[in-house]
Amino acid sequence: MTASDGDGGASAVDLSLMEPVFQKYSGQPGALIPILQKAQDIYNYLPAEVLQLIAERLGIALSKVYGVATFYAQFYLERRGKHVLKICDGTACHVKGTPALITAVEEEFNVRPGETTLDGELTLEVVYCIGSCALAPATVLDGRVMGRMRPTQLLQHLRRHVSKTSVQET
Ligand code: FES
Fold first, then answer.
1. Less Cβ around it within 10 Å: N or C end of the chain?
2. What is the 144 CA–ligand 1 centroid distance (Å)?
């Protein structure tokens, strides 16, 4: 069983992938969080159709499922890219140039903070202090901290690691 993800039909969500998860946690009333974790492992985020299915299968209100999924920072309700770039906009990083970094990535990849490029390659996230203020402005690409970034340097890193299909033609 598949359902459009409502994102222009660019991809579909295969709900049958959840069956083994429901089987594993069958009869465990408090299993909502582990089920959400497994779902995110499968889809890389929590699609609306999957949250709906979880609510139905567990017999709980959809609002409760959303409540839990939005409460914990580990859960993502938006599609995430193959690569995730976090740019710190905490005070130390902001004054050292974060706004220019964000603008550079927005323009090069046609993506806004909190969004993923249409080809699913890159997710851009803005975060607030990652504890590396001495390296301001700090960024994290796929879990690797990159400090004292300048826009040109950051774009060079991204061009090396992120597929060119998500780079805007100019
Ligand atoms: S403000 Fe950016 S790492 Fe602390």
1. C
2. 15
Total domains in the chain come to 2
Query: Residues lining ligand 1, CB < 6 A?
Result: 88, 90-93, 129-133, 136, 138
Shared domain check, 154 and 87: yes
Convert the pLDDT of each residue in 53-75 to its tens digit: 999 999 999 999 999 999 988 89
Residue 78: inside a domain: no
CA distance 3 to 50: 10
Residue range(s) defining the domain that contains residue 118 = 83-166
Q: What is the pLDDT of residues 105-136, one digit of tens each?
A: 999 999 999 889 988 899 999 999 999 999 99
Counting ligand 1 atoms within 8 A of each CB, the residue from 86, 130, 139 with the most, and so the one to mutate, is: 130
